[in-house]
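4.2 Preliminary Data

To establish feasibility before requesting continued support, the project team ran the inverse folding procedure on a target of 284 residues. The structure was first converted into the token representation described in Section 3, and no sequence information of any kind was made available to the design step. The complete token record follows.
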């Protein structure tokens, strides 16, 4: 038996034991303790939890372990069903880290899977954004909301409303910017969700040799699989500006075509930060 097939069955057994060990009440709501000890999310994130950032540099790894992430088709609910506007992938000098789905202002945006709200706030180009961490280790991102309904650390079930549709942040029209991330790295949501009928493409997501696969059989025939090499849109493509006399956040933002809010988020600083000559400021 090959190592990858053995790994597949090993994770299958772990997943079954996880389900058996979870505490579920009469309404099928998973208690908070299952987020801490009995699921894959705890194994990969351990105690790392923050309510501030969509993606955190401390979690970045250029080499992911081969694993299987299980997707519960019975649990999944499409966040919104609307016209597909924009795919994942390169957009000018940046990487569009998710997909865009058309909606109207005030439309209900739903959580895709059971999980726990990690971020619920306004962040730069995302506008009003919600990040939910799920039991399999994936995180989903819901951006440009006109109103956020949930709070950080809320337990949430698939289908519950995270917020209302809008165009806050860097958006030219009302739409949902939807991302799926694993250990901060973005992956193509089309590997998980069919953008025509908004149903799951598979009941599992496979990671092998730092690539995502929607079908296990495809790993053995790498040339035919619809895949994406894991390249983080912001962490691997970093760009810095060396501060010189007269520089301000405003002049640096204009020179590098980035908002002041994004500069503050990228560097974990406030808008009142005193800039020291000779130091580096991340601008991408």
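Position-by-position output of the design step:
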């Amino acid at each position: 038996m090959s190592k990858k097939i053995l790994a597949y069955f090993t994770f299958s057994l772990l997943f079954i034991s996880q389900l058996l060990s979870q505490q579920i009440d009469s309404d099928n709501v998973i208690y908070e303790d299952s987020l801490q000890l009995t699921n894959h999310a705890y194994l990969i994130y351990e105690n790392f939890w923050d309510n501030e950032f969509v993606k955190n540099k401390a979690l970045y790894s250029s080499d992911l372990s081969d694993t299987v992430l299980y997707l519960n088709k019975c649990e999944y609910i499409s966040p919104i069903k609307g016209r597909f506007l924009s795919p994942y992938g390169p957009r000018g000098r940046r990487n569009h880290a998710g997909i865009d789905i058309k909606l109207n202002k005030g439309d209900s945006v739903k959580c895709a899977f059971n999980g726990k709200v990690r971020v619920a706030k306004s962040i730069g180009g995302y506008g009003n954004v919600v990040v939910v961490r799920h039991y399999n280790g994936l995180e989903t991102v819901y951006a440009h909301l006109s109103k956020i309904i949930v709070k950080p650390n809320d337990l949430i079930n698939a289908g519950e409303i995270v917020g209302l549709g809008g165009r806050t942040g860097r958006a030219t029209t009302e739409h949902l910017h939807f991302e799926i991330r694993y250990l901060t790295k973005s992956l193509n949501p089309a590997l998980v969700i069919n953008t025509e009928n908004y149903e799951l493409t598979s009941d599992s997501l496979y990671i092998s040799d730092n690539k995502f696969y929607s079908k296990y059989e495809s790993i053995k025939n790498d040339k035919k699989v619809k895949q994406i090499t894991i390249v983080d849109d912001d962490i691997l493509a970093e760009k810095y500006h060396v501060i010189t006399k007269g520089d301000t956040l405003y002049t640096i933002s204009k020179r590098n075509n980035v908002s002041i809010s994004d500069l503050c988020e990228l560097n974990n600083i406030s808008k009142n930060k005193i800039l020291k000559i000779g130091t580096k400021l991340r601008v991408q």
